User: Fold these one by one.
Assistant:
Number 1:
Amino acid sequence: MRNREKDAREMALKRDTILENAFHMFTSNGIESVSYLDIAKTCGYGTTTLHRYFSTKSKLVVAVAAWKWEQVWEEKDQLLSGRESAERTAAGIFEFYLDSFIELYRNHKDILRFNQFFNVYVQSERIDTGTLQPYQDFLESIRKHFHEMYILAEKDGTLRTDVPEEELFSTTLHLMLAAVTRYAVGLVYIPEKSFDPEKELRYLKELLLRDNRL
């Protein structure tokens, strides 16, 4: 009789192995240039095993994106949850999330490089909304935190609430993520002297804070 718990652990381990190897290969070589066969060989599995977990390359790419981003943001959620509730303000939470993007640039340039490849791949392959759902679910979890912050702002008055919630979420996410991604992959003007990427990113953060704080 098969041990179901053991089988489940082995399946989860294989899935994580596929995701981890695919992430590193996509980040190093670009998504479009990496084939199913390349990933299978690196993992030590056959392509049949890959198809058992991810029926198409697009589903694998989206799964990698959702899996890796969830790992990174789980760390940040734990840090925020560790703060004393009495010390939280909407403005403080907003600043925490802005700082989180800068921390991504400082310590997670690999996922930002992947993010650049991912955006191009999604557009070029015209990935449908059904396939993108796991990634959209991750974005929804961030949106939930922004909603909680916005509700708190209505109570404590430390952030503007005349700006629609969806506009605040979209503007913050797109501006900060686009900025740290471009810096991570080198798609910025680099002067000969006095170039400090983090200083420039902190300047963007302060602009967003100043524009939205009361």
Number 2:
Amino acid sequence: MATIHLKKGLNLPLAGRLVDESVSMAASCSCYAVVPDDFQGIVPRMDKREGDAVHAGDVLYHDKTHDAIKVVSPVSGVLKEVRRGERRKIEAIVIESDGTGAAIEHNVKRDVRELLLESGLWVMLRQRPYDVVPSPEVEPRDIFVTAFDSAPLAPNLLQVVGEKRQYLAAGVKALQTLTAGKVYVGFKDGEEFDIEGAEVNSFKGPHPAGNVGVQLANVKPVNKGEVVWTLDIVTLARIGELMTTGKVPFDTLVAVTGERVKQPHYVHAIMGCTVEALLKDNLCDGDNRIISGNALSGVKVPLDGFLRAPYRHLTVIPEVSCPDEFMGWAALSPKRFSIYRTFTSWLTGSKDIKMDARIKGGERAIVRLDEYDDMLPMDIYAEFLIKAIITRNIDKMEQLGIYEVAPEDFALAEYADTSKLELQRIVREGLDFLRGELS
């Protein structure tokens, strides 16, 4: 077991963090949804129609390119609606639950790859390069698992796993059949424990130390022509449970956090449940920004929307905390937080900081201040990589390490960026462009 110390990055002390590990049950919910955009690299082709009855685990759609890649329903009931947007793009598949809990049971005495594909757990995996759902035709060099999330207000993944820790070894054993390399598990320093069959590393340092891409880059980076799969320890436990019981667990613990939540705590729910069911009687009045995920890389959702994959975190912050503030964004308030110590709030120590959803500035030219590099503990020149992506220079992108990165790795750099560029969007578009050009 090795301990890797990471110095670059930043822990954002947002208000509304989890102060206890109490768990409540989500309010009753009649509808659940699967959002295809949560599974990058898949072009959906429907297997079910509106009005069809489904069990938990029934296939809703498959990938247009690889028929074997399937996305399944998290609940039993009736396919109520296929919501479509521009050019008939599928935006959400809504299932009305019948409350019976009827679920598909799989035969575990079969090929692991086929079982993961058929059960729908395959789409919870990601591959580097491109940060997409892996192709079932490719064998990865190695598989990396992260056992902690270092993002602001993020849940303790070991708490989310809970009693299902008993299935971790079975999950590792299953993944070992899919690669000739190793299965690596990265823990937060002080929380590590041995898992049979896995090579364990611990990481010490600020966010984004919990990002699996950062761990991968500091243990065994991806080179051109190589493929590595990534996942988190919650998915690893689900794989192990499937291999042991033959059933896919669709329940999860969701960390409900943020300044605009009355009581931050864990909620036991079913994947794809409504946001309203998670926030019932726990949401402060006012203009709120509800984020499925963390405040840096999550997705904005309405109150009548649905919890998005990977289904483990909900954050609520003010949309605008003080609209009539004197001097606006230029006010030198001691309550404001700045990574550059522009304000005097740094003198108060690590006190929780209240932040809203405002950008407080406009997009402008890139100014070289080494901001990106200071927030990204990877051996790449982040600023030059962003410029290469913007100019669509494939050779430069490859030379500067685009095969190693995912949009979430740039989330903190996007927060710190004085140029106010949407770095995650830029990286996502660059990865999609490169994949389209080289595939």
Number 3:
Amino acid sequence: MNKLLSRIFTATVIVFSSQLWAGEVSRAQFTTEVQNREPVDMIVTLSTDQSQISYFTELTNLTGHSVTHQWVYNDKVMFNKIFQVGAARWRVWSSKTLQPGWTGRWTVNTLDEDQTPLLSQVFEYQ
């Protein structure tokens, strides 16, 4: 009987451990604004007559972990925003004010606490 209980306990630990790291970005997009914790539009290209852009992500199954939005322009990290995830479904966003001379391709990487990319998305500023 003790062998059986030991096997059940071991299996439970393995399942719990895999669920702990099964987190993901379930939704992500660039937007001009976030209202009531939701993006108001989806941006792929931002014109230089606008300077403010936000990156919204909905995270699932990452409770207790941290996630970073890493804004990259011309292969240079321009800004990092770290979030502590407080629930099984957690919505976060970061914003960046762009300078007129920063035209071109921008990437935002969503990184887990080990700095492993969960998702990368690109927009053009022109």
